[in-house]
Amino acid sequence: MELGELQRVIERTFGERDRARGVPSTVAWLAEEVGELAQAVRKGTQAQREHEFADVVAWVASLANQTGVDLDAALARYARGCPKCGASPCTCA
User: Fold this and answer.
1) Which residues of the chain fall below pLDDT 50?
2) Which pTM value belongs to this model?
3) What pLDDT sits at residue 69?
4) Number of domain units in the chain
5) Gap between the Cα atoms of 80 and 59, Å rounded
6) Of 6, 35, 42, 86, which has the highest C-beta tally within 10 A?
7) For the residues of 25-37, what is the DSSP string, one character each?
C-alpha cells in the first residue's frame, strides 16, 4: 500500500474520530506507539515489530490528515536520496 492510499484509508476509517480527538491527543497516542515500537524492536518477535510499525505509520497518517499534510508530497524530499547533500548513499559528514 502506498502512503497516499493509506492516508485515504485512515481518513475513511477513523477521520471523524481522529478530528474529534484532536491533534494534541493524537500526538500523545503517536508517542505512546513509538514507545511500544521501541520495546518491540528491542525485545519483541517479528510479528510484534510488524504490528507496532503498522500502528506508528497509521498514527502518523492520522496526524498528517489532521494537519493537512500529504505524506507523498512531504516524503518527496527523500526521493533522490539525502535531502541535505543529495547523494545516495548520503555523503554528509
Assistant:
1) none
2) 0.91
3) 98
4) 1
5) 26
6) 6
7) HHHHHHHHHHHHH
| SS3 assignment, position 8 | helix
Provide the residue type at 39 as one letter.
Answer: Q
Cell 498528517 belongs to 64
Which residues span the domain enclosing 13?
3-78
Instruction: Name every residue whose Cβ is closer than 8 Å to that of residue 80 and which is 6 or more positions away in sequence.
Output: 86, 88
pLDDT confidence of residue 88:
96
27, amino acid identity: V
Q: Is residue 91 part of a domain?
A: no
Compute the distance between CA of residue 5 and CA of residue 33 in angstroms, rounded to an integer: 21
What CATH number corresponds to the domain at position 62?
Answer: 1.10.287.1080
Which residue has cell 508530497? Answer: 73
